[in-house]
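Journal club prep — side note

Before the paper discussion, L.F. wants everyone to see what a predicted structure for a comparable chain looks like in token form. Sequence:
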Amino acid sequence: MTNAHRQLSEDDRLQWRARAVAALVDIGSPRNRGRVIRWFAAGLAFMGVSTAFLYLFVDVLGLNVPIGTFLTAEVCTLLRFLVNHYWVFGARSPTLRQCVQYHLAVAVAFTVWWVAANVLTWAGVHYLIAGIAAVGFSTLFSISSNFLWVWRRQH
């Protein structure tokens, strides 16, 4: 097979880009407004939930911080998966496949945050500003992966 056969045609690339842009725009459509609001509300609520779990694991149960943060991350990832599944997306019967996809999306979102924060710092942005800006990149990835992959609407 030649390189020409392996590569997408220009028309295919343009169609793929158009579908990707349309899907991203659809996230902000009126029919998704409630879901988007619930998605952000859950994210804000989990800042408090994760703090409570971290306190529980470290101060109450006496675990060291690395173990406490790991357990907090995993417990909150599982709980947020369930909150997103039932409350945000109104889905039924969560699947192992969706849970694995959500875990992968969370891991990649962290990587996006980490890379963006470090690249911006390297480019001369103050590290605290870079960290805050990186949250925007990470959030954009998270909402996109949640709406367009893990809980995408089947047609």
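L.F.'s comment for the group: The CA atoms of residues 75 and 107 lie 14 Å apart. Keep this in mind when we get to the figures.
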